[in-house]
Amino acid sequence: MEQALKIGIVTQARATSTRLPAKVLLEAGGRKYLEHHVDRLHRTGLPVIVATTVNADDDPIVELCERDEIPVFRGSEDDVLSRFAGAARTYELDAIVRVTSDCPLIDPEVVAEGVERWRAENDENLYLSNCLERTYPRGMDYEVFSAARLFDADQKATLKADREHVTPYLHQNRPGDVRLLNVSWPIGGSQYRLTLDTEDDRKLLSTLIEEFAADKLDCAELVALLDAHPELAAVNAHIEQKKLGE
Question: Which is one Gene Ontology cellular component term of this protein (predicted)?
């Protein structure tokens, strides 16, 4: 592959989340969670594209993006695979970093290191992620893959779960020629939730941002903070992550 690849971060966002409606438009520290999320991703130096839906419910997300001059793409609500493929085509990406907008404290250095590892491998068939095996806290997840593999998945994937969740066709290696690579984290903290899915998640994130300046902390500092304050980690420790297909 050529070195001058155009790699972009595509983050999915919608207002019709079921467990915590319009969660990315809620605020902490005077800023919407989506703004915290995109701000941190911008520190990677990569372009960031918000992939939302054509539903009127998501007009406020589009308005926020337009106000903050964040590139946006609108596509299907349920066929998120086609939405990502559409975003990649529209913005002429050669490779995609997939993240989700319910990660307002995602660490840009963690993402950037993953992208550099993917580049160094120089393999169009490589799917690289830090969550094939859980070693990071939830809320730090990313996936990197070529546009070619994304477009192939969009053309061939037929299972509902593959289309709703974008990447199972790749990380389950349904084509048979995808190379999988997991980036692990030696520091620990995989038991922690720094993701926004429920009201208790929101309570924790709001406290971390407003009382501990968490929006300025990296992943290791966030883990150290939760290690030092088990009462904070307990706020959402009981939450079970939704399973694939739920």
Answer: cytosol
C-alpha–C-alpha distance, residues 108 and 41, integer Å = 5
At 138, which amino acid appears?
R
Instruction: Return the CA Rg of the chain.
Output: 17
Lowest mean pLDDT across 81-95, 108-122, 168-182, 227-241: 227-241
CA distances from 245 to 97, 234, 238, 242 (A): 22, 27, 21, 8
Q: DSSP character for 183?
A: P
Distances (CA, A) of 209 to 146, 205, 230, 238: 34, 6, 16, 21
Calculate the alpha carbon distances from 111 to 48, 70, 194, 214 in Å. Answer: 12, 19, 15, 17
CATH (residue range 7-190): 3.90.550.10
Q: Average pLDDT over the chain, rounded to whole?
A: 94
Q: Measured in whole angstroms, how far is the alpha carbon of residue 137 from the centre of its chain?
A: 13
Say whether pTM exceeds 0.90: yes
Alpha helices in 95-189 (DSSP H): 108-121, 147-156, 160-164, 168-171
Report the C-alpha gap between 7 and 48 in whole angstroms: 10
Tell which phi-psi region holds residue 5, choosing left (phi > 0), alpha (psi between -120 and 50) or beta.
Answer: beta
Structural domain boundaries in the chain:
7-190
